[in-house]
């Protein structure tokens, strides 16, 4: 059983962005490639959870499994992708990254992983006071709770975090620039990213 599995979450609709932002580009790479390269650097094995419309393109680009949400959880938000990944391969820890955080770094995720402890079920960044649950490290033991929550139509990851032992870490704990955690939600964010090399907090609703 692999100790740490890296999971790229690319199953969203990207409605605010206007098209699938996994294939938006920054500094010569697609957004998904930025997150995926970090996962390759910090985990033993990688999986991509994809939206059906881009799965073919992703399969052509990588050797790792590219999966769609399993039928019984399809359409139930990011936790559906998390459950699908955990079903596909068993591990002790899973590190999840969204596909729309092109500034994320190996260093930041390695520091997240450094905080793993036997009595902690998730390590979640709390950046500028805002939780970033889709850039987090989760223990395999939360699987049954996630499954139960989805069966009860509770789709919010924040609700899950309220039920488990979580270590919240700040940008100070991680010794990183907080802007690397900001996701690109809109064309306004995308323009600012290319213009300034970052996304201001005032524009970002991640």
How much helix is in the residues? 25-40%
What kind of oligomer do you see? Answer: single chain
Q: Looking at this structure, what is the CATH superfamily?
A: Spore Coat Polysaccharide Biosynthesis Protein SpsA, Chain A
Give the overall form.
globular
Q: Architecture, according to CATH?
A: Alpha-Beta Complex
Structural class: alpha/beta
| Rg on CA atoms, Å | 16 Å
Order of helices and strands: EEEHEHEHEHEEEHHEHH
What's the rounded overall pLDDT mean?
90
Describe the 3D structure.
The protein has helices at 31-42, 55-61, 78-88, 106-114, 143-151, 157-161, 171-174, 187-196, and strands at residues 2-10, 25-26, 29-30, 45-50, 66-67, 91-98, 122-127, 130-131, 135-139, 166-169. By secondary structure, it is α/β, with parallel strands linked by helices. The chain has a single domain (2-203), classed as Spore Coat Polysaccharide Biosynthesis Protein SpsA, Chain A, CATH 3.90.550. Strands 1, 4, 5, 6, 7, 8, 9 and 10 form an 8-stranded mixed beta sheet that branches. The chain has a two-stranded antiparallel sheet with strand order 2-3. α2 links the parallel β4 and β5 (66-67). α3 crosses α5 (143-151). The chain starts with a strand and ends in a 10-residue tail after the last helix. 43% of the residues are buried. The mean pLDDT is 90.
